[in-house]
Amino acid sequence: MNLEIQQTDLQNILHLRDLFLQECNFQVRYNACHERGWTDSYLIKAENNVIGYGSIKGKEELSDRDAIFEFYVMPAWRKDSSKIFKELIVASKAGYIECQTNDLILSPMLYEFASNIYSDVILFKDGPVTNLFIPGATFREWHEGDNLFEHKAEPEGSHVIEFNGEIVATGGFLLHYNKPFADLYMEVKEDQRRKGFGSLLIQEVKKACLQTGRVPAARTGVDNKASKATLLKGGLSIAGYMLTGEIKSRRM
After folding, report:
1. What is the pLDDT of residue 105?
2. What pLDDT score does 121 carry?
3. In terms of domains, do 221 and 145 share one?
4. Which residues contact 162 (CB under 8 A, 6 or more apart)?
């Protein structure tokens, strides 16, 4: 098989990326890296036919291009994915692979070509319908003039939970992910935690998200047990994990 892998402009891979997004049908954590100019794009050809693409971003620094994070090959050529991916490594000079475990095209390449694999992020998708209720707690949109508590981890949200005249939690959803997915976030006032306000907020923000035609998703650190429990109780379920590995040839 005569392979050719060329660095190209983002515009030249967008039609292939549409196929990738349609096939995977999940929230892509690093989706916004493309539109923000933080990626390099590679067009993959075989026998002079375009058959796929690869995308590279910085693992730590935005200016670096050392981690393969998207890899798509058309189904007819997928039996040769390993050979194609090896050539992508050579062409891009990448040292790392970052992928989602629910990415069924890239994750096998990670296990074949990388070592020292670890995970630091859990990915969530829409889950069961919940019916949480806290007497006296009101979910509503944020109003100008609301007295919000100091936020330490997340932005001040578009929606709040009010309890006994005090705003005890805020949250919302971000729209810079691949459509139709949105990323839910929330923060609870420190002295009001472990009372169920976070899960109630996630439940209601999920409804608000769906009403806009977006599909709820979220993520948290693997060590953040409180956030994981809140998201699960609020009606999300685990979709997968972010994995990072060092390409073996980097150390050869």
Report:
1. 97
2. 98
3. yes
4. 137, 138, 140, 168
CA dist., res. 154 & res. 175, Å (int): 15
Q: How many CB atoms lie within 10 A of CB 176?
A: 10
Domain count, the chain: 2
Q: Are residues 148 and 76 in the same domain?
A: no
* Contact status, residue 245 vs residue 116, Cβ threshold 8 Å: yes
Average pLDDT over residues 74-93: 97
Task: In whole angstroms, give the CA distance from residue 239 to residue 244.
Answer: 17
Range of the domain at 46: 3-120+242-251
Predicted confidence band at 251 (pLDDT cuts at 50, 70, 90)?
very low
Shared domain for 31 and 113, answered yes or no, is yes
d(CA 90, CA 4): 11
The pTM of the full predicted model, rounded to 2 decimals, is 0.93
Same domain, residue pair 214 and 195: yes
